[in-house]
Amino acid sequence: MIRSTVRCLFLALCFSPCIVNAADARPNVIVFIADDVSWNDFGCYGNPQARTPNIDRLAAGGLRLDQAYLTASSCSPSRASMITGRYPHNNGPASELHLPIAANLPWFPERLRDAGYYTALSGKNHMSVGKLEPGQSARPKAFDLIDRGRNKNNGGGHANWVRIAKDRPRDKPFFFWYAAYDAHRAWDGDRQWDAKKYGPRHTPESVRVPKFLVDDLPTRQDLASYYNEVTRFDYFVGEVVQELAEQKVLDNTLILVLADNGRPFPRAKTRLHDSGMKTALVAHWPATIKPGEVSDSLVSAIDIAPTVLSVAGAEIPETVQGVSMLPLFSDPSATIRRYAFSEHNWHDFEAHGRSIRDGRFLFIQNNRPQFPWQGPADSVNSPSHEQLRLQRDGNKLTAAQQDVFTAPRPAEELYLVDADPDQLNNLIDDKRYAADADRLRKLLDEWSVATGDTVPDQISSDSFDRETGDRLPIAKNAFRGTPAGTQRNATTVNNPGPR
To answer: Which residues pair with 353 in a beta bridge?
Structure first.
């Protein structure tokens, strides 16, 4: 651990703007973000049916992190956490879907631009800055270039990735935030499929059906369409990597590949369980990371911001609650954190859940146990959810499938993650683990107090029907309540709590 810390400091000094004379000596960085992809839907994470050869090669040539967790299984709150290095409730309204990040909080690409990096965002953005308070200055520019990454033949957000890499200024190091719309519903990858590029479409027979879904043709076809989008995302990751190799800058480029939340299926997206909150995370940097490395150390999505800033030798704002992953790049067995915390706030439906992981256990607190965790509206509208409803109405659900409809739910859940990777066996009432539950409960309470978390008295309510997924006939924003942490001014709290 000491050697890792020394190496981390050495790297930071080497790449400090005060020491580096030539801008191109500093590492480039690309963060590839898939949309709505569960951690085990990449081939390198053990899915034999997933076709992700380019990401698999990056993992084989770099570091695969096997215990990486998001702070929210919800698109914009998750991305806001990554870009600020803060927990969702510490980002203000951005803890809930489609709302802005508090204006007092810096985004890490701002610091990269200040340090002389060329910065670009291409694809899904989903982030914005909130209203300025009296006395606040406008936020500095985070990206030199922003585009949606789409054209008439490509709705996946990656249409311009290679061109941006080609057209970048050659006298500056670069940072690219490449965020796909793949694999968000409604499957435009099927309509835009190019077999010459992506290979044959996935077939219903070729997919892997989780225990909590119905194994039938409609569900398998739904999953095949999802797999197609995962493969399309992988293709464009490969195209960018090839371009970097041709430019002879691949060795000095840190590449991170991850997703913002789990697959858009029942018991995945918006869940605090691994199917929603765990992410694949591949780090590739030939100049520093040895090939074929695997780490079982806990990391959080809020650790991305300090990692990238450390790599660039840029200043890390005091608002960042994460820790740098640099020690893991030289020693994958190093420990940078003991706990990973996640939260579930409003995403189409009223919710307030919190969780803590310690590498062995997952402990969940649900402050709205009266409601089912059926998933977001796009999942409730899916063929896969419809098949679950049909099985439910025919009294044919297994216990794993029934979980999607269970209400009331347990207020607390405890799982041994290695023995129960799908988290189907709740151990909260098992006396053998009572001490573990009590320890994690106290740590979660300590984290909530330290970070200024709250359960709002007036919480955002449902804006969709939980049974059909249809939008409710209510006035625009009438469902919005007070975001978590507002009562304690959590946007001004920088304490990370236990880690």
So the answer is: 344, 366
Instruction: With 0.85 as the threshold, say if the pTM is over it.
Output: yes
- Nearest Cα to Cα of residue 383 among 231, 220, 229, 228: 220
477: left (phi over 0), alpha (psi -120 to 50) or beta: left
d(CA 181, CA 376) in angstroms, rounded, equals 17
Peptide bond preceding 186 in cis form (omega within 30 of 0): yes
> Domain map of the chain by residue range?
2-338, 343-486
The H or E element that residue 280 is part of is strand 278-284
Report the relative pairing of strands 28-34 and 253-259 from DSSP bridges.
parallel
Confidence label for 24 from pLDDT (cuts 50, 70 and 90)? low
The order of strands in the sheet holding 340-344 is: 340-344, 353-357, 361-366, 412-416
pLDDT, one tens digit per residue, over 421-470 is 999 999 999 999 999 999 999 999 999 999 999 999 999 999 999 999 99
Burial call 32-51: b when 16+ CB within 10 Å, e when fewer: bbbbbbbbbbbbbbebeebb
From start to end of 42-186, where are the E strands?
63-69, 118-123, 145-147, 174-179
From residue 29, alpha-carbon distances to 136, 156, 165 in Å are 30, 21, 11
Q: Look up residue 161 and give its DSSP letter.
A: H
Number of CB atoms found within 10 A of residue 443's CB: 18
The encoded tokens of residue 353 equal 């859940």
The Cα-based distances of 403 to 272, 351, 363, 375 in angstroms read: 13, 16, 17, 11
Contacts of residue 476, defined as CB under 8 A and 6 or more positions apart, other chains included, come to none
**Residues 219, 387: contact at Cβ < 8 Å?**
yes
Residue listed under structure tokens 């605090």:
272
CATH superfamily, region 2-338: Alkaline Phosphatase, subunit A (3.40.720.10)
- Computed on alpha carbons and rounded to an integer, the radius of gyration of the chain in Å comes to 22
156-187 residue pLDDT tens:
999 999 999 999 999 999 999 999 999 999 99
Residues 149 and 151: their CA atoms lie apart, in Å, by 7
Between CA 354 and CA 459 the distance in angstroms is 15
Interhelix angle 383-393/217-246, rounded to 10 degrees, is 160
Do residues 432 and 320 touch, judged by C-beta distance below 8 A? Answer: no
Cβ burial of 196 (10 Å; 0-12, 13-18, 19+) is exposed
Q: What φ, ψ does residue 272 adopt, rounded to 5°?
A: -80, -10
Q: Which amino acid is present at 15?
A: F
Closest alpha carbon to 210 in 273, 160, 125? 273
